[in-house]
From TrEMBL:
Membrane topology: Multi-pass membrane protein
Phylogenetic lineage: Bacteria, Pseudomonadati, Pseudomonadota, Alphaproteobacteria, Hyphomicrobiales
Natural source organism: Methylopila capsulata
Protein name: MFS family permease
Subcellular location: Cell membrane
Residue ranges annotated for the Major facilitator superfamily (MFS) profile domain, each copy included: 10-388
GO CC annotation terms, alphabetical: plasma membrane
Length: 397
C-alpha cells in the first residue's frame, strides 16, 4: 500500500469515527423524550442523568495523549468503537435512573477517546490541513445532525431501545473493519502542517493561551447547551403540533446547515489568518443565540441554525490552531488538553439546561448560551489584537 492510499484509508476511518462519536453522544437528548414518557418520568431529571456522560467526555480526554504513547493511537481508536458499542447496548437494557446514568457515564468515557486521538491522526495523515479539517468537521456534524433525526425515527417506529441498539451494531461493525483494514501508525505522513515560528509569538504566548483557553471553555458551553437543547426546543417552541419524527428531522436540518459551514471554514483556514476567522465566527454565536432566545417558530430555527453554523465552524479553527502552533511531538497531548478544556466544563450544560428550563423555559436557556457566546467574542477580539504580528508571520510561512 502506498503512503498516499494508506493515508486516505486512515482519514476515512477517522472521519467515520468522528460521525459516530457525535451521533452516539447525542442519541440520549432525543431518545429521552420517548424514554421519559415510557418510564413515567419528567424531562428535567431525565436529561440531567446525562451530566456524567458529558463531564466524562471532556474529563477523560485529558489522559488520552499520554495513554496514546503507551498503547498506541490505533489501539485507542479501536477501543473507542468497541466501548461505544458496549455502552449503547447497556443503555438499551436500562430502565432505572442509576443504570441509565452509569451507562451514559461509560459512553462518555469511550467517546472521550476520539477527539484527541482522531485529531492527532488526522493531522498526521493530512496533506491539506484546512481541507481535511473541514471534511472531518462535516462528518462530525453529520453525526450530530442524524443523531436527532435517526434517533427520532428509530424511537417512533421501533421503540427507544432500538435507537441505542442499531448504532451499537454499527460501532461494532466499523470497529472490526478498522482492525482489519486501518494502516499502522508507522505509515502516517512524516510531515505535518507548517508551524508558526516561535519568534512570531514571543512573550505573547501566555496571553494567547489564556484567551484561547477562555474561548475553549465558553465555546464548549455554547456547543453543548445548543446541541442538547435543540430537539426539545423545537418540540416545545416551534408553535406547531408535530410528531417526534418531524421534530428530529427539523433538528437534523439545523445540524446539516452547520455541517456545510465547516467546508467553507476549512477552505478559509488555508487562505486567511486564523485569528481573523476566529473573530468572524465568534460574533455570529451570541447573535444567533439571542435570536433563538427571543423568538419562536421559524425565526427561532433561523437563529439556532446561525449559532450552530458558527459554533461548528469554530471547531475547525480551534483544531487548526493546535495543529499550526503545537510541536509535532506534543500534538496529541495538546489536543488532549484542548478537548479537556472544551468539554469538561461543558459537561455541566445538562444540569444547567434542566435548572434554566424549569425557571424560564428555553428563552432563559438560550440567553445563558448567548452570554457564553459573548465571552467567546471578547476573547476572539483580544486574541486578534494580541496575535496580530504572529498572524502576519504565520500566514507567510
Amino acid at each position: 500500500m502506498t503512503p498516499s492510499s494508506s493515508s486516505r484509508r486512515a482519514l476515512a476511518f477517522v472521519n467515520v469515527a468522528h460521525a459516530l462519536d457525535h451521533y452516539v453522544l447525542l442519541i440520549y437528548p432525543t431518545a429521552v423524550i420517548a424514554m421519559a414518557a415510557d418510564l413515567g418520568r419528567d424531562y428535567g431529571p431525565m436529561i440531567a442523568l446525562s451530566t456524567g456522560a458529558f463531564v466524562a467526555f471532556g474529563l477523560f480526554a485529558l489522559p488520552m495523549g499520554w495513554l496514546a504513547e503507551r498503547v498506541g493511537r490505533r489501539n485507542l481508536l479501536a477501543a473507542f468503537f468497541f466501548g461505544c458499542a458496549a455502552s449503547l447496548a447497556g443503555l438499551s437494557a436500562s430502565t432505572t435512573p442509576t443504570a441509565i446514568a452509569a451507562w451514559l457515564f461509560a459512553l462518555g468515557v469511550f467517546t472521550a477517546i476520539y477527539h484527541p486521538i482522531g485529531a492527532s491522526l488526522l493531522v498526521s495523515h493530512a496533506s491539506a490541513l484546512g481541507r481535511s479539517l473541514g471534511w472531518n468537521g462535516v462528518f462530525g456534524n453529520l453525526g450530530s445532525a442524524f443523531a436527532s433525526g435517526g434517533t427520532a425515527l428509530l424511537a417512533s417506529s421501533l421503540g427507544w431501545r432500538a435507537a441505542f441498539l442499531a448504532p451499537a451494531a454499527v460501532c461494532l461493525a466499523v470497529g472490526l473493519a478498522y482492525l482489519a483494514f486501518a494502516p499502522a501508525e508507522a505509515e502516517a505522513r512524516a510531515a505535518g502542517p507548517k508551524q508558526a515560528p516561535a519568534s512570531s509569538v514571543g512573550l505573547r504566548i501566555p496571553v494567547l493561551l489564556a484567551l484561547f483557553a477562555a474561548a475553549l471553555i465558553a465555546g464548549g458551553m455554547t456547543f453543548n447547551i445548543t446541541s442538547i437543547s435543540l430537539p426539545k426546543a423545537i418540540d416545545e417552541r416551534l408553535g406547531l403540533d408535530v410528531p417526534l419524527a418531524v421534530t428530529g428531522a427539523l433538528a437534523t436540518g439545523v445540524f446539516l446547515f452547520g455541517a456545510m459551514t465547516q467546508l467553507i471554514v476549512g477552505r478559509l483556514v488555508d487562505r486567511v489568518p486564523l485569528p481573523t476567522i476566529f473573530v468572524g465566527l465568534a460574533v455570529l454565536q451570541p447573535l444567533g443565540l439571542a435570536i433563538a432566545a427571543t423568538t419562536g417558530g421559524a425565526p427561532m430555527l433561523a437563529g439556532l441554525a446561525l449559532a450552530i453554523a458558527a459554533i461548528y465552524g469554530q471547531v475547525v479553527v480551534n483544531d487548526a490552531m493546535v495543529a499550526r502552533y503545537a510541536p509535532p511531538h506534543l500534538r496529541t497531548k495538546a489536543y488532549s488538553v484542548r478537548y479537556f478544556l472544551g468539554f469538561t466544563a461543558s459537561g455541566f450544560a445538562a444540569p444547567l439546561i434542566a435548572v434554566a428550563h424549569a425557571a424560564g423555559g428555553f428563552g432563559l436557556v438560550f440567553t445563558l448560551a448567548a452570554a457564553f457566546g459573548a465571552v467567546i467574542f471578547g476573547a476572539a477580539v483580544c486574541f486578534l489584537v494580541a496575535s496580530k504580528p504572529a498572524a502576519v508571520q504565520a500566514s507567510s510561512s
